[in-house]
Amino acid sequence: MESNSDSDHAEENKSQRGPTIKSKSSKGKLIITYNKKGVPIGKESVALSTFEGLVARTMIPITYTTWPKVGKERKEELWQYVMAHFVVDPKSRKQTIQSIGTKWRNFKHTLYRDYIETQKNDPEEKKNLLNPPLEYPFLKKEDWKLFVSQRTSKQWEETSKKAKKVRAHHKYNHHLSRKGYARLTTEIMQETGLEEEEIDRAMLWKRARELKIGGFDSDVQVVVDKIDKLKESDSGEGTCGTHDVLTQALGTDEQRGHVRGMGKFVTPQQYFYLPNTVKHYMDTEKKKYDKRLNKLEDELEKLKRGVNNVSEAESCQWGNEDLEDNPDEEPLDMSCFLAVDNASNIVAKGTILMDTNEEEFLRVMLEICLHREALLPVPLEEEFIMEVGDAIGQILSWPRHLVIQCSDLVILFS
């Protein structure tokens, strides 16, 4: 019954009228602005979100069983309708359609929760399900009857039970409501004066889960304490890629196509590998190494003073020329990013151990993993190490053209 209902939509409702919005006036369309990750921000984004909800409720029949069953032509119709009311970036089409799809699924869940679930088992109240709710006059009676039959079937009951079990495992619920991570980022920027790339997702994850009365839920508090501890220690400072502070605190790897603490429309490629993100990481790394270098220079200065106080006969035969710093020479930065297939596909960070400028491969130590499942260009077959995630701390051979020195990146982004 359900599969037939999906195919029936191909010919119906092609000229269905969409919603109107009060913000649309003689002054023209609302212009949507975006942050550096391509997510809508500002008060106009609130109007866009509201409009997407209206479109989802009024222009898409509730009898489609799943969002993928909604055809390409209808989705294009939705996109064109949004563009008729807003000035949006053409690149945001996929994001906009996904947002409408999410709001459509939420609307169907609301209908089930408020009108079907509470009445389906009572013979008297079940009579109320013969007609659509008065609150939604745009719902067609035949669509409503089919929707009720779908949501009261045994197949749906089993699917619903499985979904509830999965949902029960979610311990770290955010309290953003309609604000979203993009507007939360803007809020933090206004409060702190930080740039967008300086606000990491660990900070956003924490802020999104703060209670209105202050503090955190007990499960969230455990992760928050780990985040704070990691940020105070060297192990968490400057960690880049998917194994960053938040991943370490949560203790689980990132899922493909999703970035926790950034909202549903930010992809791993956008967050982890944007030039600004890499540059910010490089700046943090440089500060860390400068701090260590200064500490070593202080220790060397103390050692020099100690040697000068010892008699020449009892000294270690160190000449001043061996101890003096050469102001014309800077310490050689051998840190590097490691890529596979092509130089833009960065999967790890490491240190160059040997460079003869002659060989096709370099010897590197892999230190930080950015893409755990990426295959090594030269696997360690004897140790059964084939993937980047298993090679942390290992000395590897890496194709020269896929090794990008960090010092070169700093020059490139400066």
From TrEMBL:
Pfam families, A to Z? Transposase_24 (PF03004)
What does the UniProt keyword field contain?
Answer: Coiled coil
Renumbered residue ranges of the record's region Disordered: 1-24
**Signal peptide coordinates:** none
Asked whether the keyword Transferase is assigned, the reply is no
Q: Which domain of life is it from?
A: Eukaryota
Any coiled-coil ranges, and where? 286-313
> Which PANTHER family has this protein been placed in?
OS10G0338966 PROTEIN-RELATED (PTHR33018), TRANSPOSASE, PTTA_EN_SPM, PLANT (PTHR33018:SF31)
Protein name as catalogued: Putative transposase, Ptta/En/Spm, plant
Where is the organism placed in the taxonomic lineage, from the top? Eukaryota, Viridiplantae, Streptophyta, Embryophyta, Tracheophyta
